[in-house]
Amino acid sequence: MPVLLDVPPADRRVIDLMKAQQRELRALYNDTDERTEPFDPATLSGEGCVLLAVEEGGELLACGALKRIEADTAEVKRMYTVPDARGRGLGRQVLAALIERGRALGFGRLVLETGDLQAEAIHLYESAGFTRIPNYGYYVGIENSLCYELPLDVRAARPPP
């Protein structure tokens, strides 16, 4: 039975997942120049950061993270499911947990970037309520990048006074 865990960014298994994601994206976009956003997993250990993974039988099958990019905004990062585990709803489970964590941390919105060739990811994000926005930050001017946001009602995560 898959279990959702908080994992430290230094966990070798989650680093391996993130590297596999980058290899897959470079192959999908024929990116021989490695033009993808530079990323250091250690940046996921700060305040307002969350790194989740789905574990089954000691193996990590999926991961995703939140990284604070503004006082009120976190970016969804490194959503990935290993190919053999796709179609089981693991990515949806990770994303739902990240959304709830974002609310609990008091973020007003989540943003993310995905690529125009990633139909499954686009469907996942749109079905979770994310809507297209102009490209932000690193992704401004990158034509195959699609950026999304999800406003969060942080009051829903807090008990009434």
UniProtKB/TrEMBL annotation:
Residues 5-153 form the N-acetyltransferase domain. InterPro entries: Acyl_CoA_acyltransferase, Bact_Acetyltransf, GNAT_dom. Gene3D superfamilies: 3.40.630.30. It holds the Pfam family Acetyltransf_1. It comes from the Bacteria. Keywords: Acyltransferase, Transferase. This is N-acetyltransferase domain-containing protein. It comes from Deinococcus aetherius.
